[in-house]
Amino acid sequence: MSSDHQPITRTATRPQVFDRYDRALSRLYHLEASNAFGCDAAPYESIDAELPSIVDRCRRSVDVFAQKAFETESYPGEAFDRLCGTETTSGLYEFVSRAEIDPSDVVLLRGTTAAVESRVFHRLFEAMTDIGVIVSTAQPGHHVVDTVAVGDLTVVDCTPTMSTEHDDDRVRSLPNASNLTAVGTKIVGGIQDCDGSTPPLLGVQSLYDLGIHNSPQAVSRFLQVVISKLRGWGVGGVMVGGPDGESSDAALEYHFDYVVDVRPTPGGGIEARVRGKAATPATWHTLWKD
């Protein structure tokens, strides 16, 4: 590596690195706009003939600054958060990093309400993986695909919303969640179909809904079988429990490595803590503020 491209450590140079990355992306955006539409690129009108090669060079420049930005991150995803100017995900990524939540861990997510659980589940899944399978018992598969920003996602749709209006090969439908054997078969098939270059993640939303269609004993046996397979494959999972106070949900905690509790704050934000993880204090951390 030349002296111009030495790895940048996490020092006071971080803001300058992110700023240069931002400017490189901004210039690439204008170049791409001119290349695609022939407009909105005033600084570059006189170089139309050379534009494609200039765009290619700018892309390479962005790649260089992106790598430098990634090297300076204090938590995974910081570069993206800073460029977008949002705090919505930065607190969550920092929480995942500080709590050392590993993608191979099998985690139970519990919240005060289903709405809080759902919101955190989607963002936590994104923070932990870019490839995986989600079993959805509450939201139609096409909604999950549109909501969860994961590159390679398969959704096992267990909602009674059979429709041809949203045909999508990423969605595998079941009439409901009453047949746990069928759900397990869909999970195995979805994970086996994932690109083997990166371990996938399994998400289940939610165990409470599985319990509506099945006895607590059946759900417990289902978890025992599924989680045993996940551990054998080296695959992690995030599974949504039920709102606080559901005794059947609490009885299932022993299947998991630990629990992530989430709750709303008086100001409208959400905070979380890890409970039952060795050497990790069960202290509350802010994920985001509304």
Task: Explain how this protein is built.
This protein folds into 2 domains: 3-72, no CATH class; 101-288, Rossmann fold (3-Layer(aba) Sandwich). The protein has 10 helices and 9 strands. The protein has helices spanning 14-37, 51-72, 78-84, 90-98, 114-128, 141-147, 180-192, 207-213, 216-233, 247-250; strands spanning 106-111, 131-136, 152-157, 171-173, 201-205, 236-240, 258-264, 270-275, 285-288. A 9-stranded mixed β-sheet has the order 4-3-2-5-6-1-7-8-9, sandwiched between helices.
Characteristic terms for this protein:
single chain; 290 residues; alpha/beta; Rossmann fold; 2 domains; nine-stranded mixed beta sheet; 10 helices; 43% helix; globular
Please render the helix and strand layout as text.
Blueprint: H1 14-37, H2 51-72, H3 78-84, H4 90-98, E1 106-111, H5 114-128, E2 131-136, H6 141-147, E3 152-157, E4 171-173, H7 180-192, E5 201-205, H8 207-213, H9 216-233, E6 236-240, H10 247-250, E7 258-264, E8 270-275, E9 285-288
Parallel strand pairs: 1-6, 1-7, 2-3, 2-5, 3-4, 5-6
Antiparallel strand pairs: 7-8, 8-9
Helix pairs in contact: 1-2, 7-9
Give the structure's gist in a few sentences.
The protein is of the alpha/beta class and 290 residues long. It has ten helices and nine strands.
